[in-house]
Design brief:
It is a single chain. The protein is an alpha/beta fold. It contains six helices and nine strands. A nine-stranded mixed β-sheet has the order 3-1-2-4-5-6-7-8-9. The longest helix is centred in the last third of the chain and has 13 residues. The chain is globular, with a radius of gyration of 16 Å. The model has no long low-confidence stretch (mean pLDDT about 95).
Length: about 210
């Protein structure tokens, strides 16, 4: 089995319910989407070949028990699934950050799936794979990045129409530099949405530094 690996690094988790926890990040190469606000475009191409065994060995150099497999879109590599299982078998608490455009049903049930839904301003909302909602559970989380008032209203309607908060926790994040975080916070409060507002902790600490 061969993976294409962009980087492995040790940092604090910056998003979702695990925010603030020391975490080893495994960033796989490649993504079929091109979201307008993407902040990891360097992971679209390149990377180095790696085996699951070599990834486990590198992850094992760090003291964290939390491991996050991310991208790009990690599920665009077929060997992502056995990597996730191997990490679980090794005793790690594993999360997967995925775009919501690819099938998540085959992910090891021990993995927490942090799944995006792409709002219109991402330019990729047509690629949301809505069937994924049928397999999510309370261990998983849905994340929606908000770049405008229009995005927010789209997210609000999807939340209500599809009862997303009954499936799993829902996270709304302001797109960096495109919307004031305070505006999003106020909209959530005005509408009484059952969601978690989140800022990217790692960017507050380190800005856009690669490997953080």
């Amino acid at each position: 089995m061969a993976l294409r690996l962009t980087e492995i690094f040790y940092s604090l988790q910056g998003e979702a319910s695990r925010a603030g926890l020391p975490t080893v990040f495994v960033r796989l190469t490649g993504c079929p989407l091109r979201c307008t606000w993407c902040d990891t475009t360097y992971s679209f191409t390149g990377g180095e070949p790696a085996s699951i065994e070599s990834v486990l060995a590198e992850v094992g150099k760090y003291p964290a028990r939390q491991v996050c497999v991310t991208g790009g879109e990690p599920l665009s590599q077929k060997d992502c699934l056995p990597l996730l299982t191997a990490l679980c078998d090794a005793g790690y608490d594993v999360s997967l950050e995925t775009s919501g455009a690819l099938d998540v049903a085959g992910v090891d049930p021990r993995v927490a799936r942090i799944m995006d839904l792409k709002a219109p301003d991402s330019g990729e909302s047509a690629k949301n794979l809505w069937a994924n909602l049928d397999v999510l559970n309370r261990r998983d989380e849905i994340k929606i990045v908000i770049a405008s008032r229009g995005d927010y209203e789209w997210a609000r309607e999807v939340l209500r129409d599809r009862q997303l908060d009954d499936l799993c926790p829902v996270l709304l994040s302001p797109a960096g530099g495109l919307i004031e975080p305070q505006s999003l916070a106020e909209w959530i409060l005005e509408d009484g949405l059952n969601v978690r507002f989140q800022l990217q902790l790692h960017k507050l600490l380190w800005g856009n530094m690669k490997g953080k």
